[in-house]
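Standup notes
- DV: blocked on the single-chain target, sequence here:
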Amino acid sequence: MLARVIHGCAVASALIMGAILLMVCFDVISRNMGGMSLPWIVEVTEYSLPVATLLTAPWLLYRNEHVRLDLLQAKLSAHAMRRVDRLAAAIGLVICLIICWYSVRVILDAVQVGGVVLKSLVFPEWWLFVPVPVGFGLMAVVCVRKLQNPDAHLPVNPLDAVAGE
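- DV (later): unblocked, structure below
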């Protein structure tokens, strides 16, 4: 189940990045050809980039494709490296839970205040903060998983993970 959710997030992130690419290309070509420019494209792009990042982060962590110190891996034994990975997972779990907790508080405060984003698009301000606890919550789950089994990661082909569950 976790593999499906994380792969779904990665696919959603890829679709968001593709949509950003198409919108920006349309906007640039349209403006340079004397056509119309849609003012909301820049705004949607600004809001979409952090969403795409927060959706991709759990996938990268799950697959062990995040930033690591390969120097340590080359110098330490496999047993010592597993201990380092578990320590990193424990620290990551604490950090992810703290960020989740604070981001949920920010969302609740924004809902209580009733803040609204007033630009080209108009929407409740708290919508901007929702991806933070989602992304960091998923990363916290992955960190728990890595504490239990630091060697586990997703197969390269997402269909293998779905078929294996």
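- Follow-up: The helical segments are 2-32, 40-62, 70-75, 78-113, 131-148, 158-164.
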